[in-house]
Amino acid sequence: MNDTSHVAEASGVAAAERPAAVEFHDVTKVYGQGTPREYVAISGVTFTIPDLADHGEISSFLGPSGCGKSTVLRLVAGLEPQHPPTGGTVAVLGRPVVGPGPDRGMVFQDYTSFDNRTVLDNVVFGLECRGVPRREREAAGREWIAKVGLDPRRDAAKYPHELSGGMRQRVAIARTLILRPRVILMDEPFGALDPATRLDMQDLLVALWREVQATVLFVTHSVEEAVYLGDRVFVMATTPGRIVEDLRMPAASAPARETQSQPWFHEQVNALHARIEQVEAAAKRLNGARE
Ligand SMILES: Nc1ncnc2c1ncn2[C@@H]1O[C@H](COP(=O)(O)OP(=O)(O)OP(=O)(O)O)[C@@H](O)[C@H]1O
Ligand SMILES: [Mg+2]
């Protein structure tokens, strides 16, 4: 370490200079470019999610169907055909995204377990790919099965078809978090769950996130979920998909049921609903004018 970096660190400049967890600069994605089906899914999307030391942030993405939420997430993940963007740059932890990588983990809405693998074998799949010896990976797998609220003795040997939707999402979360990604991408992970299970899963996510301290990008259609989980909420609008609001939210500090019954929470949710209605009405007027 040279003298300058000493000075920088002492003054806190080094922390400020940590590369962002996720950075979009003027990102556009056009599907079917040059064909009659050409469609501009997102346009001019710019945002920076910092990599907070020993903390991480949860950013919620809210917006109408088709506004490009999954496109944004899959660009971060480096998954085709969303990756590469048509224009602009997508960087994770200071490096341009060139494809999927171990620094990012993704949890989808549909239960994406391997049907022919047990819960334990699903959870340890990534460790197996990394060549971690069986004993070591299975010990870690059982630990994670417990961390997501399943029973390592009763549930480890079950197959996905023997699990409820909530249990399957717990497996998907364990399978992702066991790899300790710095950036976790969640695309409506609780969208198919009943309201009570959904609140339990929100609590689970907050608890696990405190432990792993990763940066989470969380796509949801639920304003309540976005407000409760998000330190920050990005509101998107459609045609073309773009970010129209970037709002700070109070961090989730109490259990979901408790927080979500409080007056301040309802006020936040109502204000955000009103804002989304405005955004959607403006988009409709604009599209009407174009037709
Ligand atoms: N592979 C693809 N090829 C062509 N068009 C696509 C493709 N993927 C998405 N689109 C289009 O791009 C737009 C944005 O899609 P995207 O899936 O990102 O939206 P979304 O906000 O996630 O929607 P939802 O809330 O319904 O999941 C949509 O109009 C969609 O039809
Ligand atoms: Mg989507």
Provide the succession of SSEs.
HHEEEHEEEHHHHHEHEHEEHH
Q: Give the proportion of residues in helices.
A: 40-55%
Query: What is the residue-averaged pLDDT?
Result: 90
Q: What share of the residues does DSSP label as strand, in percent? A: 15-25%
Number of strands: 10
Bound small-molecule species: adenosine-5'-triphosphate, magnesium ion
Radius of gyration of CA atoms, rounded to a whole number = 20 Å
Distance N terminus to C terminus? 61 Å
Strand order of the largest sheet: 6-7-8-3-9-10
What structural class do you assign from the helix and strand content?
alpha/beta
Shape: globular
Protein described:
The chain is α/β, with parallel strands linked by helices and 291 residues long. The chain is built from twelve helices and ten strands. The strands form two sheets. It has a six-stranded mixed β-sheet, sandwiched between helices. The protein has a four-stranded antiparallel β-sheet with strand order 2-1-4-5, with helices on one face. Strand 1 and strand 2 (39-49) form a beta hairpin. The termini are far apart. The structure holds adenosine-5'-triphosphate and magnesium ion.
Can you lay out the helices and strands and say which pair or pack?
Layout: H1 3-10, H2 13-16, E1 22-31, E2 39-49, E3 58-62, H3 69-77, E4 87-92, E5 95-96, E6 104-107, H4 119-123, H5 125-129, H6 134-147, H7 152-155, H8 165-177, E7 183-187, H9 195-212, E8 215-219, H10 223-229, E9 232-237, E10 242-248, H11 256-259, H12 263-290
Magnesium ion is lined by residues 69-70, 187.
